[in-house]
Design goal:
Layout (H helix, E strand, L loop, with lengths): L9 E2 L2 E2 L3 H4 L15 H4 L1 H12 L4 E5 L9 E6 L2 E8 L2 E6 L46 H7 L8 E7 L2 E5 L8 H11 L8 E9 L3 H8 L3 E5 L5 E8 L2 E8 L3 E6 L2 E11 L2 E10 L5 H24 L20 H14 L18
Antiparallel strand pairs: 1-2, 3-8, 4-5, 5-6, 6-7, 7-8, 9-15, 10-11, 11-12, 12-13, 13-14, 14-15
Helix pairs in contact: 6-7
Length: 364
């Protein structure tokens, strides 16, 4: 990783990676304050997230159902890094795309704002991803071949992969922590994939809320447990009137199980205040299942969108009564857990340049 002193992780007069920045948000429930609004509205904070989360944690990017055949390829933007996973024999190989930035000679200004653009040329670290690509579209001379694989895919920078049931995870770090134990814990605790590994429905929803706020509301309910390293949170809830179990695997996967079905929701930031939800449903093929789960996701997202609007307007002329006011107490246990996850990672992010960084900020 590379820390650029000329850029810094400072915004709105605050050092975003210091312990003091998070201190008021780490107290006991009922006393801890919400995080400062800069966490949800700052482009520079999103760059810190790239350093401390997206290039270090295990990130869910989709499912094996999306790439069922040899050579099929699934693109996904992790932070500001364009990567893909391809099925090669019995393995899933993760690599950084050959055209990390769309092949542009310089990064266009509209692509440097933190909002993913709709690029007609390719999927890259600054654009919205296209769907899975069938192997037949990756032949020699095809644009997709040049954008993702090039002529020598074996020479591309690789990433690590892991699986939880049918779900695919990647980790961009050089030596990541093992995922198997964490995945085994949550699979046993929640029973989310009880042999249900065939996807019966999938789709995409998008909401005007920061991914962190959306995650805490998708995981709403009575907190039951978390693992000792704070990588997952298990919640008892209701979904459509049914008893449900919900888990948040930090940072970007929420699992919900009710009745005989499981819904996996993959979160992907598309802007500072916008999040794509890719949902995948498993279990019995029953009429109304798709509508049941999408309605539940949308119901939980309503409060997230309200909270996002309130916090990003805090201290501004949109909410003049909050200018100079003390931040409110965090009223949500999931929100407090999220704050602890951020603080733990931010205060341990590398703050020194290294001679040969693996990841670098793009030069315009």
């Amino acid at each position: 990783m590379l820390y650029r002193p000329d850029l810094g992780f400072r915004d709105e007069g605050q050092e975003l990676s210091s312990e003091s920045f998070y201190a008021d948000a780490l107290g006991r429930f009922g006393e801890a304050r919400v995080l400062p609004p800069v966490v949800f509205r700052s482009f520079r904070y999103s760059l810190l997230e790239d350093e401390m989360i997206w290039t270090r944690d295990w990130i869910c990017i989709g499912t094996e159902d999306e790439i069922p055949r040899e050579g099929d390829l699934l693109p996904f933007t992790v932070g500001i890094h364009g990567i893909h996973v391809q099925r090669v024999g019995q393995e899933l190989k993760a690599r950084f795309n050959k055209a990390q930035h769309g092949g542009c000679r310089a990064i266009p200004l509209q692509c440097q704002t933190g909002k993913k653009t709709k690029c007609s040329f390719t999927s890259c670290g600054y654009s919205r991803d296209r769907g899975a690509i069938p192997a037949g579209d990756l032949g020699e001379g095809a644009p997709e071949m040049e954008q993702y694989l090039g002529s020598q895919p074996e020479r591309l920078l690789t990433a690590h992969t892991a699986r939880l049931g049918p779900l695919i995870f990647v980790n961009l770090d050089v030596s990541p922590a093992a995922a198997n134990l964490v995945f085994a814990e949550i699979a046993e605790a929640g029973g989310f994939f009880r042999g249900d590994t065939q996807c019966v429905a999938s789709g995409t929803l998008e909401f005007p809320a920061n991914w962190k706020i959306l995650g805490q509301h998708l995981a709403a309910g009575e907190v039951l447990s978390e693992n000792l390293d704070g990588e997952w949170l298990l919640v008892r809830a209701t979904a459509g009137g049914k008893a449900a179990l919900v888990a948040w695997l930090f940072p970007n996967l929420v699992l919900m199980r009710a009745g005989n079905g499981t819904c996996a929701v993959v979160l992907q930031p598309s802007a500072l205040g916008q999040t794509i939800c890719r949902y995948f449903m498993y279990g019995a093929v029953e009429e109304g299942n798709s509508a049941f789960w999408t309605a539940e996701i949308e119901r939980r997202a309503v409060k997230a969108c309200e909270d996002h609007k309130n916090i990003v307007r805090w201290g501004t002329n949109y909410r003049p009564e909050t200018i100079g006011a003390t931040l409110p107490v965090q009223q949500n246990l999931q929100g407090l857990w999220m704050q602890r996850m951020l603080a733990w990672r931010a205060t341990r992010a590398p703050m020194q340049a290294i001679p040969q960084p693996i990841f670098q900020y793009a030069r315009g």
